């Protein structure tokens, strides 16, 4: 049977880190965690844990041979707490046992003396107390202070955005195996193999060349395994080093939900000013990000919020300030969209308030103020084309926006307990890591003697299909059947110093490196093929599984490879790719941080039952800019998944902590993600016009469509407002059934 990375997943045959066969003698580890949101502690008492049958060892920070710090953007993030803890669930010891059960039971038996300290859970309270991860940052354009005077309409308001749990299917997992040379082989379910690599080197004190990190695939990551897969791999590595035995650590679902960070909740104040013609003149916003107890990636996420604060709109005068606030919650982390969805929500809320004050539809204001070619973003780039309006207009005409507005108005006029609402959400999403150095990738390609091809890059497949895209690009470039190409697992031994698979750049960066590696192989094969075909090298075409020339003569690919080996032509290549033209100065907040922008627009329709207080999202229609799609089916899957994930965040997914900072919603019974029945009908039109973009003219697709999910909130609110005028209260997500009911009935 031919191998297909997607079929393995579809058939349920794909093996994840936790499914790997365990080497003989493997031990299992589990962390003992803080019961306090903020406390000093001492006197760790191991006796009860060690008395638990099967428990082999209890390790603490004192057992770390290297440095007890796994911070990436900032130092000072201990692997195991020393003397002080900063959130409920922070690990302070590691219990190692001969079964996962025994390790878990042992961890529950560990005791320490806790002296509680004051804790803060709210971002604004942390801000007021001066608890900031770094000084606030401001992105500005034009002269916002002067612009207010020219505004005839000014609206202001406040937004509270909730958190969200990643709910990747595979929970956090790592397996560390000691090697005979004193090194370690680590299987980690991480989006960031080199992040794990560096952190294991730091805690072990080993040089990186003695450590290998391998990632076959992930059962979902969604950002939750970009930074926060690292501690589990380090803990397994620590135990493996100390005990000279293989050690596995896998969290169960409730522990995964309790111990790992989530999407950052944001609180925000906004002010939007318009002139008499309805043009946006001035926008000011302050964003308070709830970072949780460490920096993690929070400052990079905050920066992406600032980059996206104006979404797809022309805003000549802007000032957006954002603060990353330290609270005593598990450190929040990357989640699809990386801070952009939060910032975009704030502006979309402002626009709807302005429309309401003016007594017009939000859609008319939105359309009028979309970006055109040359319009400036606050960070030094300008809109490269008119794709924002092109997508909107295609959405409007193809999905009959005016007709839908009319049909909904008629429906709502007919009485009864149901009301319908509609909204449109445009998106403009910058593609590239804002940190320029991360925009590089490497690929290693081998052609074997039978003509089969192996490619490995730094890309981690987490279900988004990046391996499939890389395979397709290599096959297209070499002109061979896709079945000849195998994408090997990601390993720091094959490709070093890899950027995390994140920022939707996985295919753009690693796919281009793979293409460059394939081109190198062809450069070596071309003179040989020309000689064998008796034609000039430039006349050789690599296609249809052969090298051919104009008169139709051909050498089949496997024969060419046999000949190449005999002639000592290199059949392996390593290529590096760095996205050209990128630069960004974070002190001036100016530069060219993104290779390109992804545009699009979605029409979202919802129904509420005002008696039952329930809501549902009926339909989402989308026009989305994918460039020259490498695989339209995969692109559609990414768009659908992102939309449903966004809808969940906006509607049913509510993270609740008790007053002591303990997570209440720590099961999938108390935390409701959308299921098949909640998912609306989704109609997608891919806009495939060429333009400057990424891999072979395609555009990144992983994160931007999540923004369309914001429409769930606004469509539900529109439906509610069709039943009765809603007070201008704080806009708060998620808009759960409970909130729909209480807001409709003033409870
Ligand atoms: N799709 C699936 N099925 N599973 C995932 O974990 N992660 C998303 C997106 N799509 C994810 C996904 C996130 S957060 C990102 S950044 C991109 O995929 C990363 O992959 P790419 O860069 O290859 O698009
Ligand atoms: N997106 C995702 N992950 C990241 C980014 C980003 O922009 N920057 C650093 N890590
Ligand atoms: Mo995605 S949040 O950049 O892993």
Distance between the termini: 61 Å
Average pLDDT, rounded to a whole number, is 97
Structural class: alpha+beta
Q: What portion of the residues fall into strands of 2 or more residues?
A: 25-35%
| Parts with pLDDT < 50 across at least 5 consecutive residues | none
- Shape call: globular
**Radius of gyration, taken over Cα atoms and rounded to an integer in Å:** 27 Å
Layout: helices, strands, pairs:
Blueprint: H1 5-10, E1 27-33, E2 39-45, H2 47-51, E3 55-59, E4 84-85, E5 91-97, H3 100-109, E6 111-116, H4 123-128, E7 137-141, H5 144-147, E8 153-161, E9 173-178, E10 184-188, H6 193-204, E11 211-215, H7 230-243, E12 247-250, H8 253-259, E13 266-274, E14 280-292, H9 298-307, E15 317-326, H10 340-358, H11 362-368, H12 387-398, H13 401-413, E16 418-431, E17 440-447, E18 453-457, H14 466-478, E19 485-487, E20 490-491, H15 506-533, E21 541-543, E22 546-548, E23 554-556, H16 557-566, E24 572-578, E25 583-585, E26 590-592, E27 596-609, E28 614-625, H17 632-650, E29 681-687, H18 710-721, E30 731-732, H19 737-744
Helix pairs in contact: 6-7, 9-10, 10-11, 14-15, 17-18
The protein binds ligand MTE, hypoxanthine and dioxothiomolybdenum(VI) ion.
Ligand MTE binds next to helix 15 and helix 17.
